[in-house]
Design brief:
mainly alpha; Rna Polymerase Sigma Factor, Chain: A; Arc Repressor Mutant, subunit A; about 65% helix
Length: about 290
């Protein structure tokens, strides 16, 4: 049974067809996982020439991410059989989900496309072709320090606890988020009310606004997506998505302005301006 026939069954409420569709496309998901892992130079080998445990674990995670992306594409119902094969439609979504998963787990902040492309080229020459850093800098037309940074870029899974030396004392999260962990009770309450208000008003927006904002920022149950993916899903141009996002943000802001949370925020700002920072008056006493 073809993907297209299974999709018809799924649209008619046949859950078993969804399971079969995932099984039928297991090869596609595995292939995309290998391709993305290879681009990020994550297919490391052990001393015997087989995949390392790290590489196996990473491939397993990418395949899980790919299967979830496949199911999500089916659930959203955006596929049009008249425009091509299902595998052609779903591949960009699988790649996008896997790339985001990898880049969110890299050792440093995610790079832009051009910089990451340079990292992949440099690491391929260094690890697979055995070239020296000097040879790589000459071949790619970049400076020696730039080539060295690209080769050393840590394309591996990373934890915030790796930022702290094992012998150092203290909580790393306290050092990374001092403003959040040491805020006053008033600030904690205002933050909580603000987040609750945002969620309530977000859910009052149209489905289209929720989809665009949710995917742009990866909030309220929506996976974070790049502009191209949102444009494909919404059948819009990328410029149209940008414009729709700005308009949705304005509508959300307008809805929040009269809420209790925003009134408290304005009151807090007025107090902060009126009172010197050394002698702040608690909000509840104003």
């Amino acid at each position: 049974m073809t993907n297209e026939e299974l999709l018809v069954r799924i649209s008619n409420g046949d859950e078993a067809a969804l399971t079969k569709l995932c099984l039928v496309n297991t090869g596609l998901v595995k292939n995309r996982a290998w391709s993305i892992a290879r681009q990020y130079h994550c297919l490391r080998q052990n001393q015997y020439g087989a995949l390392s445990d790290y590489a196996k674990e990473m491939l397993s995670e990418l395949e899980s991410v790919g299967r979830l992306a496949l199911v999500e594409c089916v659930r959203t119902g955006g596929y049009d059989a008249g425009k091509g094969r299902f595998t052609t439609y779903v591949t960009p979504f699988l790649d996008g989900a896997m790339r985001r998963h990898l880049e969110c787990s890299l050792g440093t902040l995610s790079l832009d496309r051009d910089s990451m492309g340079l990292v992949r080229k440099a690491q391929k020459r260094y690890h697979q072709k055995g070239e020296s850093v000097e040879q790589i800098s000459q071949a790619l037309g970049i400076s020696f320090p730039t080539a060295a940074r690209a080769v050393a870029y840590p394309t591996h899974f990373f934890s915030v606890y790796d930022l702290q030396d094992p012998e150092e004392d203290g909580d790393i999260l306290e050092r990374l988020t001092p403003g959040w962990l040491s805020e006053s009770p008033e600030e904690t309450v205002i933050r909580s009310l603000t987040m609750e208000c945002l969620r309530e008003e977000f859910l009052q927006l149209s489905k289209k606004d929720q989809e665009i904002l949710g995917r742009c920022f990866g909030v309220y149950g929506h996976p974070k997506s790049d502009l191209r993916e949102i444009a494909i899903r919404s059948r819009m141009k990328e410029s149209g998505v940008e414009k729709a996002k700005d308009q949705a943000i304005k509508r959300l802001r307008d809805r929040c302005l009269d809420s209790l949370a925003w009134k408290l925020r304005r009151a807090r700002r007025m107090v902060d301006r009126a009172v010197p920072t050394e002698v702040k008056i608690p909000l509840h006493s104003v």
